[in-house]
Amino acid sequence: MDNMKMMKMPLPSSDRVTVAVRVRPFSQREKNSGSKCVISMHSRTTTTIQDPKNPEHVKTFTFDLAYWSHSGFQKDKDGVLISADPTSKFAGQRDVFHDIGRGILDSAWQGYNATLLAYGQTGSGKSYSMIGFGANKGIIPSVCEELFQAIENQGRNQEYQVTFSMLEIYNEQIRDLLSRTKKPGGLKVREDQQLGFYVEGLKTVPCENYAQIEKLMEQGTKIRTTASTNMNASSSRSHMVITVQLKQVFLDKALTKQSSIHLVDLAGSERQKSSGSEGDRLKEGSRVNLSLTSLGNVISALADAAMGKKVLHIPYRDSVLTKLLQSALGGNSRTTLIAAISPADICYEETLSTLRYAERAKKVRNNAVVNTWSRAENKTLLGCGNSGAAEQSACFLADHQMGTYAIQETWAHLLEQARREWEQQYAAIAQERQMVKTLPHLLNVNEDPQLTGVLKYFIHTGSCVAGRAASNAITLQGLGISDKHASFTNVDGKVTVTPHSKCKVIVNGVPITSRTKLQHLDRVILGSNSAYLYIGFPSERGNEDLNRFDYDFFQLERAAAEGVSMDKLGAGSSRDGQVDPSVLAVFQDYIKLMPLVAEANQMSEELKKELKMELKVKNLASSDSRGYELQKEVMVKVTNQRTHEVWIWSKSKFINRKFLMEELYQRFLDREDSHVAQEDDPFWDPVEVIHLGSAHVWLQSLAYCMKFEEQVEFLNCDGLEEAVLHVHIAPCSPTGQVYGEEDMIIDPFELLGKRMDFQIHIVQCLGVKWLKEDAKRGIQIGYRIYDLPNTLYTKPIWKIVNPQIEEIVQFAALNASQEFLNYLQTNALIVDLWGLQEGCAELSCSQLDFIVTGEGHIVVDTKKISNVKDTSQTPSNQTSELYLKVLKLEQETELLRNINRALREENVFLKESLEKIGSGQQAHKPSNTLKVTGMTSQLPSAREINQMCTQQDSCDKEFAKALKVFYQSMNTARGQFLRLRQYKPPEDDQMLRPFVHQQSQMLKDLGDLLESSMWKLKNDVALIVKKKREYLLYIKQ
Ligand SMILES: Nc1ncnc2c1ncn2[C@@H]1O[C@H](COP(=O)(O)OP(=O)(O)O)[C@@H](O)[C@H]1O
Ligand SMILES: [Mg+2]
C-alpha cells in the first residue's frame, strides 16, 4: 500500500498547529433544564457563539475545521450516531477520523511525529472524540485499527514495530496506566540530550495487532478508574497521554523511519471563578492546574513568537505536561488541537474561553521533520521527543548501530515477552466476561462517564466481605471505606448487603444499617461516595439502558432522600411553572457539591482535623427589606467539633480548600509527612464573625407616628428561629420625648417636608441558640436604616443566653421626603444577628460617615443634604452644621410660602363671600371641595360649626384608633403570612408536589391581593382625610 496516497488532511501548512472545534449534543441535564444552544456553524470552518445575556452580541471564529455534532443525527442498528438525512450537517466519529485521524496516520507513515490534543471543559466531549463510547469509536482506537490494517497489507521487505504506552498526569505526578504497581511520588521526567524529555521507567509495550491495543487501553482505563476511586482523584483534573510509536524498517534500502504519535486527552479546562478563592487566605490548590496553566502559557508564548513578537523564553520546564509535549508545540511534530465545546447557554463563558484558547493555538508554528536515517549514513535519530523510557525502547534508539538481524532478534524477543503477559491477561479477561454473564455483580459508576462500568465486583454464591483489606473476597478502596465494610450474601437466588458497624452504605439514596435485599439495578453507595450499580441474576435482567443510571442519577436520588429538591429551594414559587434559572443554578451547585462535602468530611475525619462541613443555601429563607426573596447561593458551614468554632465558606473557597485537602490527604495515604503548619492548613482558618440570622421589623407604624414594641424572630438561612429580638421603635420630639397615642396621624404625608425624629431601641435578645451551644460565645446586633451609609452595631455581649442590650439610637429625618415616607410604609428594618467567637474581631462602624444633628442624633433621609453636599466646596468638618442651617432655612421658606398661599386664597374667598352676602346671594362652594350628599346649601351658624367640630374631633379620634388597631394587626398578619409562605412540608413527596406548588401559588396570589388592598385602603383613607380637612376649613370660614 502506498502510504503517501492515503487521504490527505484538507488542511493548510503542516507547520502550523491545526485547530478543529466540535460541538456536542445537549446532555440530559441540559435538556431537563431547558438549555438553549448558543453555537452555530455556518460552514466547515466557522463557529459562531451568541451571548445569551446579550443576544446581539455574536462572535465568529474561524478554524481549520468545525464539526457540528449537536443535532441532525440518529442511531443506526449498532448504536452508531449517523446523519439523520442527507442534508444534515451532522459530523459523526467517522467524519472526525476521516480528517484528523487519517491526517495523523499520514504523518506517521511519512516519518513525522504527530500530536493530537483534546481541549475543553469537563463534559464537553474530549474523551468522546479521543476514545469514544461503545460503538461510537473515537480517534485513538480508529487510528490504531487502521494502522495495523495498513501494516498487514505491507510488502515483504519491510519490518514494522509498534509500541504503546499510556500514562496519566495528576497533580504533577505521573502514573503508568499499564503498570499495576504504583510508584510512590509517580514516575520522573528525565531529559536526554538526544531524546529530549522522557518518562523514566514507563512501560512501553510492543504490539502486533489492534486487539492487543484494545486490551491495553481497557487495562489502562481500569487502572485509571481504580486509582480515581481509591484516591478520590477526579479524572477531570488529570491528563491522559497515549503514545504510539511506529518504526518502519525498509530492509532492502537499509532505511528506517520513525514516528511518535502522542494522543492527549487534557484535563477539564474550567477554572473556578477567581472571586471566591481569591478571597481565600490560601492560594489556589498549588499543583492542580499547573500543567494546564503552563500549557496555556507555552501556547501564548509560541503564538506571540509566531506573530513576530520578541519572546525570550518558552516556559516548557514549568510543568510535567509541557515538558512531555515540548516537541508537540513549537517543535518537531505535526500537531492538531481539537477544541470540544458544549452547546448550552449556561456554558457560554467557558465555551468562549475555549474558543479563545483555540484561536491562540492556531497561531503556533512547528517545525516538523521526517525522522529517518539509513545505516549507511549512520545518522542519528531525530526528534524522538518523549519517546518513553530509554531502557525499554532500547531497540528503537540504538538500532542504527545494529545489523538488520540484530534488530529483528531484539524485537522478536520483546514481542515474545509481551505475548506471555498477554496470555495471562487474556485468560483473566475471558473469565471476567464469562462471570458477567452468569453472576450478580456491582458495576462502578464514576463521575466521568468514560470510567463508568469499568470495574466489576462479583458476588459469588455464599457470603463474602467487601472492604479495603486485601484478604476480603471483594477488595475495594475509596474514601470512607473500612477494612471490612459490608457483607454480601448470594443465597437461594437472593443477594443481600449488610453494613458492618458504623460503615456507611446507601441503597437507592437511603442509608441502611441492617441486612437489605438487593434488586437488579439498585444503586449502592459505599463509604463517602463510591457508587455502584447492582446487576442482578441473568433471570432478572432485561434490555435496560444502563446509561440512565449515571453519576447524576445517583446524586439526585441521594439529594432527594436527604430532602433537597428544587421545590425546597424555592422553585415552587415561580409564577409560570418555569423554573427560575437562579434556583436551578443553586440546585445544580448543591448536587455537585454534596458528594464533595461528604468526601471532605471523610478526609477531615481520617486526618483527625475535627471539622464538620455542611452544605447550606445562603438566603434560603431570607427576604429583602420589602419581603422579596433574596438571591440564593450555595455555601459551606464549617464547624470545629472540638472548639465549636464556626466558619462560613463560599462555594469557590470550599472547592479550593478541597483541592488542598486532597493534596494533604494523598501525602497521608502515601505515608509521607502530612503535617502542615497551621497557616498552611486547608482545614484551618482564623476565627471570624458569623452571620446567624435576620429579623424583619416592619416600619409601617412609624409612618403613622405610632410607637410600637415588637418581639420578632431572627431566622437563620434554613428559616429556623435563632433567637427572638425585643425591639421598640418610637416617634419622638427632637429632644427625645416619645410621642403618645394622641400624636398619631392618619395620613403619613402630613409628615412630608417636616422634621421627623424616632428612636430605635434594641431592648433584648432572647434564647440565642448560638450562645446556648457554647457558653464562651458572644453576639452583636446590626441594622442599617434607609439610606444610612453604614451598619450600626450594638456593643458586643458575651456569654449570656438572654442578653439585655438596652441600646437606644435616635434618628432624625430633617425634611422627610416622599421616598422616605414610602419606605416606612412598605419596608422592614432588617436586623442582623452576628455570632462572635473567642478571639475574633468585633464589629464596629465608622461614625464619621454619618451626619449628626446638633443634639447628636443621626440624620437619615439625606438625599437632599447629599445634593447640597455634592455642589458644596466647604471643608468636611464644617459641612454638617452648614447643611443643617441651609435645610432649616429652606424649610422656613417653604413654610412661609405655604402661609402666604393660604392667606391669599382666604383673601379671595372672603372677598367673594362679602360680595355675595352684600348682594343677598348664596355663596358657592369652591369647585374643588367635596360634595357631600344631603348637605344643606345654607351656611351653618357659628354655634353649629363649633358643635360639628367637636363631634368631628371625637369621631376622628375613634377613627384613628380603629385604624391604628387595624394597621397593627395587619403588621402581625404580614409577618405571619411571610412565615407561612416559607413553610414547606418536611417530606418531598411526588404526590404532594403539584399540590404544594399550587398552594404556594395561591398563597402568593393572596399575598399580592392583600398588599394591593392595603395600599388602596391607605390611599383612600388619606384622600378622604384630606378632602374632609378641606371641607372643614371651608365651613369654618
Ligand atoms: N459528539 C458527541 N456526540 C454524542 N455524545 C457526546 C459527544 N460528545 C460528548 N458526548 C457525551 O457527552 C458526555 C461528556 O463527554 P466526555 O467525552 O466524557 O467529556 P469530557 O471528556 O470532555 O469530560 C458523554 O456522556 C458523552 O457521551
Ligand atoms: Mg474525559
Task: Note down, in words, how this protein is organized.
It is a single chain. Helices cover 34% and strands 23% of the residues. With 1037 residues, it is of the alpha+beta class. Strands 1, 5, 8, 11, 12, 15, 16, 17, 18 and 19 form a 10-stranded mixed β-sheet that branches. A 6-stranded antiparallel β-sheet has the order 21-20-30-29-26-27, with helices on one face. A 5-stranded mixed β-sheet has the order 23-22-24-25-28, with no helix packed on it. A hairpin with a 5-residue loop joins strand 2 and strand 3. Helix 12 packs across helix 13 and helix 13 packs parallel to helix 14. The longest helix has 45 residues. 37% of the residues are buried. The N terminus is likely disordered. It binds adenosine-5'-diphosphate and magnesium ion. Adenosine-5'-diphosphate binds next to helix 3.
Mean pLDDT: 84
Please, how many helices? 21
Task: Give me the count of strands.
Answer: 43
**Gyration radius, to the nearest Å?**
39 Å
Bound small-molecule species: adenosine-5'-diphosphate, magnesium ion
Shape: elongated
- End-to-end Cα distance, whole Å, is 118 Å
